[in-house]
């Protein structure tokens, strides 16, 4: 008898990322799209001849390499002036955003992966799935030799 009052999955409205474009999202919805992987916080090099972006395993000095979150998110531009603040318009222009990035996926009309916290309901699944930079990076505070830290895995 009590089962009659439980909402069935098919009766629930679709999640906001399936019904809204990036520009239509509230600030809270926008911020929740970040899966906490930390990949966008990796230092990148650009091959001047080919314009190819090369990823390194060197993280921004503000990235907490355990939580994979910015340690000074609200003030990050003050400490790291070159930090790119994502906007719906910027997402399409930043070709270096990882292919797994929720902002990129939504802008391309794709769905989020199973490990995204909005899908799984658990902020740790991005780490369990091996998507995050946790345990794979060094802080730029500990090295200044980016050329010897080029890696292929963030793509």
Note the topology.
Layout (H helix, E strand, L loop, with lengths): L15 H4 L7 H6 L9 E5 L6 E7 L3 E2 L4 E2 L5 H4 L8 H6 L8 H6 L9 H4 L4 H4 L9 E2 L10 E2 L4
Nutshell version of this structure?
The chain is built from seven helices and six strands, in the order H-H-E-E-E-E-H-H-H-H-H-E-E. It is of the alpha+beta class and 155 residues long. The longest helix is centred in the N-terminal third of the chain and has 6 residues, at 27-32.
Describe this structure in words.
This protein has helices at 16-19, 27-32, 76-79, 88-93, 102-107, 117-120, 125-128; strands at 42-46, 53-59, 63-64, 69-70, 138-139, 150-151. The chain has 155 residues and is of the alpha+beta class.
Are there runs of 5+ residues with pLDDT below 50, and where?
none
N-C termini distance: 51 Å
Q: Given the helix and strand composition, which structural class is it?
A: alpha+beta
Strand content: 5-15%
Return Rg in Å.
Answer: 18 Å
| Helical fraction | 10-25%
Listing every helix as H and every strand as E from the N terminus to the C terminus, the arrangement reads HHEEEEHHHHHEE
Count of strand segments: 6
């Amino acid at each position: 008898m009590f089962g009659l009052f439980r909402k069935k999955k098919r009766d629930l409205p679709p999640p906001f990322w399936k019904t809204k474009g990036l520009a239509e999202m509230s600030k809270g919805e926008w911020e929740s799209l970040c899966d906490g992987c930390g990949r966008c916080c990796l230092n990148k090099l650009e091959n001047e001849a080919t314009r190819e972006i090369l990823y390194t395993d060197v993280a921004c000095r503000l990235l907490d390499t355990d939580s994979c979150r910015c340690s000074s998110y609200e003030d990050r531009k003050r400490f790291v002036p070159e930090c790119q603040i994502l906007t719906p318009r910027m997402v399409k222009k930043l070709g270096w955003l990882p292919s797994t990035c929720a902002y990129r996926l939504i802008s391309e009309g794709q769905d989020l992966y199973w490990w995204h916290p909005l899908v799984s309901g658990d902020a740790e699944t991005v780490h369990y799935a091996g998507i995050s930079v946790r345990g794979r990076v060094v802080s730029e505070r500990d090295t200044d030799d980016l050329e010897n830290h080029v890696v292929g895995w963030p793509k």
